[in-house]
Amino acid sequence: MDKPRILILGATGQLGHELQRSFAGAGEQIACGRDTVDLANTRQIQEVVRKAAPDVILNAAAYTAVDRAESEPELAAAINAVAPGVLAAEAQRAGALLVHYSTDYVFDGSKTTPWSETDTTHPLNIYGQTKLAGEQAIQQVGGKFLIFRTSWVYGPHGRNFLLTMLRLGRERKQIKVVDDQYGAPTSSMELADATRSVVGQILAGRFESTSQWAGLYHMTCSGSTSWCGFAREIFLQAGQMLEGHTPEVLPISSAEFPTPARRPAHSVLSGEKLMSTFGVRLAGWQAALRQVVTQLSA
User: Fold this and answer.
1) Closest CA to 192 of 157, 238, 164
2) Most buried among 2, 38, 128, 201, using CB within 10 Å?
3) Could you tell me the fold of the domain covering 5-159+186-220+268-283?
4) What backbone phi and psi angles, to 5 degrees, belong to 148?
5) How is the chain split into domains, by residue range?
6) What is the mean pLDDT of the chain?
7) pTM to 2 decimals?
8) pLDDT class of 239 with cuts at 50, 70, 90
């Protein structure tokens, strides 16, 4: 394929920003943000895809407000569960590759070793339930698709834990952060670059048939920490951005910080399948954080 047409949905979000950067030069980009396509509107999705006539669809759009989803289940389901199925059908109609992102929150956190793609799902909240339904909708359509489950996504753009911590670090002397939920902080930059690597291999014809690569993969930075550990590393690496106002990070339990949506206690994902199929392994979470902090400091 010479120059593929690449449709990026959720282009104004934190991952969408990085996908545009990472796929620059890979083909003709059609970037659509929330103002262009409403993922709760099936007809709009169909019209946008048919007009774009893409070879690749990168769906970085999602309903990601985990707590708000508990009180907006219909909207969360429309965007996270129904829309992916519509996109899969449109991708098949166009003969396009669909790349979709899911979440570690499809698991209940009952395992203390990394979760694999074949482990039983059991989401604890509406967000996780709708994301799982989206995965299943794509799998039912089949065809040329990649579902990347990721976790704790942050980056230089959008709204995320890193940028929230930096804001609070300037405002407060002490910050209380949950210390009994473990996962892998994953930068949007690493996620986008890993996606580019995988998609590049497929478009280059490395595989003989779709069945050799299509499916579900875990894609997160290596290693793991708690939210409290993540916060401490942020202030360790980005201290110079706070002009000497580094706050004290106090560990608390999930019980001390109740939220509308329950979170899994341990949602570290294994990246072995991604490595064995595509030879792709994301950076360690601390190294990935360093890259984002460098970008923010520039």
Assistant:
1) 157
2) 128
3) Rossmann fold (3.40.50)
4) -110, 110
5) 5-159+186-220+268-283
6) 95
7) 0.95
8) confident
